[in-house]
């Protein structure tokens, strides 16, 4: 994991399938303050492309990193505005 950021909040969406990881990630990001980082823990392998695509097309969100850790996919997104 990158040490250039500090996780502000963790969202556990393990066991959820598309589209819920993205839907819940959007809701959690909306609740953060600018500059805060959300860690998302998912077990749906599709979340790697789904969250990346959502972040790429969403104003105010920067996808910092995605990590595959065994059966868990970890996503780190910063609210930028």
From TrEMBL:
SUPFAM superfamilies: SirA-like
Pfam families reported for this sequence: TusA
Protein family: Belongs to the sulfur carrier protein TusA family.
Chain ranges of the UPF0033 domain: 11-35
CDD domains xref list: SirA_YedF_YeeD
The protein's name in its UniProt record: SirA family protein
High-level lineage: Archaea, Methanobacteriati, Methanobacteriota, Stenosarchaea group, Halobacteria
Organism: Halococcus hamelinensis 100A6
PROSITE patterns xref list: UPF0033 (PS01148)
């Amino acid at each position: 994991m990158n040490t250039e950021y500090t996780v502000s909040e963790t969202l556990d969406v393990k066991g959820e399938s598309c589209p819920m990881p993205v839907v819940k990630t959007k809701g959690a990001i909306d609740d953060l303050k600018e500059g805060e980082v959300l860690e998302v823990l998912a077990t749906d392998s599709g979340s790697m492309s789904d969250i990346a695509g959502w972040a790429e097309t969403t104003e105010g969100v920067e996808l910092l990193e995605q990590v595959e850790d065994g059966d868990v996919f970890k996503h780190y997104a910063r609210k930028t505005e």
